[in-house]
Amino acid sequence: MVWQRSRLDQKILSPSPSFDVSVMQRTQQRKWEIMIKKLFRQHIKVQQERIARALTECSVDGLIISSGAPITYFADDQDAPFHATPHFAHWCPERSPFHLVHLRPGQKARLVFFSPNDFWHEAPTLMQSEWADEFEIIRVEDQSTRWQILGNLRNHAFVGPESKEAEEKGLVANPVQLLNYMDWFRAEKTDYELYCLEQASELGAKGHRAVRNAFAQGASEMEAHHIFLTAIAGREEDLPYPSIIGMDEKSAILHYQQKRNTKVPQASVMLIDSGGKYQGYCSDITRTYFKASAPATFKSLLAGMEKLQQELCEQVRVGVSFKELHKTCHLRTGQLLVDTDILRNCTAETAFSLGLTKIFFPHGLGHMLGIQVHDVGGFQSNERGEQVPPCAEFPTLRMRRPLRAREVVTVEPGMYFIPMRLDTVRHNELRSYCNWTLINELLPFGGIRIEDNVVVEAKESRNLTRAFLGNDFAIS
Ligand code: GLY
Ligand code: MN
Ligand code: MN
Description:
By secondary structure, the protein is of the alpha/beta class. Helix content is 36%, strand content 14%.
């Protein structure tokens, strides 16, 4: 059964007003610990069953997964922000390098926990780790002993970036067949993972609310970025991906990476695509806002996109073809373009079949979400790794197969006025379908994207984002 927030809220978050606050906090903390430990135990139990089957299918006796090694910049002594191997993160929330998880069917998972004696850095500890009980933990201070301590690793596989080191020790590094099983399993979330994703959404929503207020008060893109970080009490490396915060024409750059420092109180539009991370799980949330100074057509488009996005979210169900949902999005986008007179002399269907909707909506409707923002498995048709053939009609679509229960997907329709895209039709035979006067008027206002994170269920869709963040897109 999927863990329901509302039940926990009632139990934990409704104390008697006369209750001593510190006792109350300790009680809440204790209840939370019990809950998270229980969820994590169930998660590991499911993982054990899955990996035992995968190892048997692959005729392997055991598996070592490494959290990975830091990446050092060329000719430098500085490392890039560390990202743990996702397969490791699926087992263990610890986020530092050089740990190993050792898995064998029917045996408790072992964790070789690397905690060096290092006075330059703070070494990781297992204090207050709600997940530690699920492992037999062996602490090592020295990288060179982390393999020896595991003893005989006959007929073992290895997953992680240190493939050369693993092969030298006789392990089969990153076997594709095993990775296919692991990727397939990773798409289907346990209750623990859904809880983490929900928490990541709640965190992301906090940042979004703060940034909406900041935009209303004339903040710059850079200020909005810092306000987001402050609201989630995080560093840049705690973000699931670099925040995208673009005002006016910059909102049409899909992965806009700059943050302008100049104050833009006169900006009419802001697009923010940013999320939170909880125990390694991501949220991926986008909102677009306009002020009174935006053109009437832009306002109509945003209202239309909000309606479209919500209808698409509601269609997320077990068995639904994501490709069909993407196509529906194109047809509805075409209708909006026709209704607002941006496209003329055609129907929505014609606009789609001529490729005109792709000019305004050039990316996929969404992708899987989990430990990675663009989570894996969207191209696999089964656990053995057979691939769903690429879709010639929508080559950029990352999710190509029908949705399965407990997968989490993003639903992120977009509509943009991208000069580079519009220039491809400005002078060819399709130009007569475009209302260039209106398009040129809208170009300085960039684009629109609305993105929520949705759990795939059998009977109804469960929108993780809307539980914490509405879409109050008009700033008066
Ligand atoms: N934030 C990147 C994406 O929406 O896919
Ligand atoms: Mn996304
Ligand atoms: Mn996004």
